[in-house]
Amino acid sequence: MTDLAVRAEQLLRAVLTDLEVDVTPGSPAAEVIERHVAPLRLVSLFEEPSADLASLIRLLEGGGGS
Amino acid sequence: MLWEAQQKQEPIEVRDPGDALLAAAEMADELMQRLRIELNKDGKLSPSLLSAIGEWLDRSSKLNKTVLDARLDERTARIDERNVRISNLQAKQLDDVLRRILGELGHDLAPGGPVAEVVGRHLRAMGEEDLRLRSGLRRSDVVRGELV
To answer: What are B84-97's pLDDT values in tens digits?
Structure first.
């Protein structure tokens, strides 16, 4: 299974590219991605990476939650 | 029995039920072998007694297996439950990060909106890729003859 942080970064880069946002290294968007994704790398050190995509889709379709 | 032993201050060890049953099965096997030796040497044990002991040993072994299997099922269920919990938690973390980043870059992830549609499309593609990779793993594991 793909690492959680790697998965988040891949997803964000793909989505932002589709939204025509510049995500090349050094761009403002790349900096924002790095700042938010970095904490996920710690999560991946301690837990098995297995983010459930079906759960994520449900969260997105439901407008998120806390 | 344990309560009585405690009242008499006898040193009774409280053991894991599986370990206790395993020890009982080993003891029964040893007893059986000794009885066989005695029978061969003196010829004093009756075949019916030997048969009864054999039956008891068989029953004890089955009981032991049942307990150990139940414990294995319980552990497997706990691992599955933990994996589901972690998967859901990580999905939530991923959702939070997506919202924060897209929000900071000025994109609204409202349900049904164009950004949500793009995200959903990429997530489904990732899901399909996961399925494809898992299928590939299973095929290679069959070739290697190993379990995941």
So the answer is: 888 888 888 888 89
Buried/exposed code over B41-75 (b: 16+ C-beta within 10 A; e: otherwise): eeeeeeeeeeeebeeeeeebeeebeebeeeeeeee
Nearest to B119 among A7, A49, A60 (CB): A60
Eight-state DSSP code of residue B111: T
* Interface predicted TM-score (ipTM) over 0.90: no
Residue B93: closest C-alpha in chain A: A40
Task: Assess B81–A contact: CB distance below 8 Å, yes or no.
Answer: no
Show the DSSP H helices in chain A as ranges.
4-18, 28-46, 53-61
Angle, CA A51 vertex, CA A58 and CA B95 arms, to 5°: 50
User: b/e string for A20-38 if b means 16 or more Cβ within 10 A?
Assistant: ebebeeeeebbebbeebbe
> What is the Cα–Cα distance from B140 to B145, expressed in whole angstroms?
8
Contact A40, A8 (CB under 8 A): yes
- Quote the pTM value: 0.55
